[in-house]
Amino acid sequence: MTPLISVKDLSVAFHLGKNHNVQAVQGVSFDVPANSTVALVGESGSGKSVSAMSIVRLLPENAILAPESRVLYKGQDLLRLPIEAMRSLRGKDISVVFQEPMSSLNPVFTVGEQIAEVLMIHLAMTKKQAMERTLELMTEVGIPQARSRLKAYPHELSGGQQQRVMIAMAIACEPKLLIADEPTTALDVTVQRQIMELLAGLQQRQKMSVLFISHDLGLVGEISNHVVVMRAGTVREAGPVGAIFNSPQDAYTQALLACRPKLDYRPRRLAVIEDFMQKRPAITEQRVARPQGDMSLIEVKGLRKEYRLKEGLFKHRVVEAVKEASFSLHKGRTLGVVGESGSGKTTVGMMLTRLTEATAGSILFEGQDLMRLSANQMRPYRSRIQIIFQNPYASLNPRFTVGQILIEPMTIHSIGANQDERARMALALLDKVGLSAEAFGKYPHEFSGGQRQRIAIARCLSMKPEIIVCDESVSALDVSVQATVLNLLLDLQDELALTYVFISHDLAVVRYMADEILVMSEGAIVERGSAEDIYARPQHPYTQQLLGAIPRGYQG
User: Fold this and answer.
1) Under 8 Å between Cβ of 68 and 9
2) Is residue 438 part of a domain?
3) What pLDDT does residue 493 have?
């Protein structure tokens, strides 16, 4: 059977300056059969996105393709097709759904106009015809109140709705191949489930093939027919999904499958890539919940946050972001907070640190109500309650060296006698989070995402905190890097008796990390209990819905 797309001996390098080329992909070959889903999996930097973007020739200008590289479609080599012919194929025969819809959608045009433009360009429809078809497409991809949303701008839609708009644009011309590049990475588990079911339904109805790029092997196992595993620009293993998941042959594939936290057991430490590459023995010892002391470190009562949104000249609408939240934090334990975007979980974390001021309620820390303290009175407590944000690319000052990033908060809070002592403390912190002393004089852009998150953790530790709020702090990381960071957080908790508030929409990660869990929906805590009880015996329908949406991997 002739494949729909055949990638043969693809090699891509990037020119980064005089006599300096970096090889991104080397000798990659794989086929995409008709009416099937092929998954490209691997860590960041493995070459999976470069391989996929080569098919549609959307590589940067400094990309260098090797002469032997070929991408065959209907007997044509797409790499050698005239650019005009290639443009007519893009969006019509081959479409792409990118990871971040807000950077792909034009903020100054309505979503209806952007979908209609595809139809007018590729199918020569009139504007009226295109808008009628756009309404049908928006309904087909499940956008609520589709007619009123035609005139909405991207920022007026949720992340899941934005991604549905991107999918509507991609399928508008009924393409033969849809390339989905990490389309659900930033989405909640329930929205992710909806998007994947949508893609599966569209594929079946339109008889299209899907090239799905992801580092989430749980998701890949559910939706793909074939899997191609990539590392460092080469294909390490490829085959039917059942063979890859049930009997992986390559150590790297085995490592990727083992790095992901499981729902049915909690090893003392998560396996990382190097464990398998170095053939280290598997970790069989289980993690148990840390004991709860008699006294709580923090007692939160009736915490509430309201926002007043202006509607018209004299009207306001009150939105309750958090409703009467009450809970306790116990020393040395981890409180997991889960829920969809908009559930209020991040707002709770921000109010604990008073980066967001609560509307009402109390936060008792050693008997002191933090909400009643002035800015000066709050200052000593700020060093004791720290936060690690989701995006290390945005939370580290790009103009500061790592040394400056670590020393600045120590200087502000008078930690250390002088700059020399603070520098020594900063070097010790780098060592504690697994970075070498060479990192001290480098800038954030010189590090990978996982290394940047380690720097963010080191900065947090520079304040000698007792409580750390981890706000989606591993959600942007590959499974292998994520496992390394989670192991680090657990090691630090054991060593320093840290207390964590672990906020995430990734329920498998929360299951691994948390001793106790709060489930939030629409600003309210709808269920609470031990991690074991919540996952084994969920009581609230919303909790059951969240757990039911978790990707379970290949079940064949």
Assistant:
1) yes
2) yes
3) 92
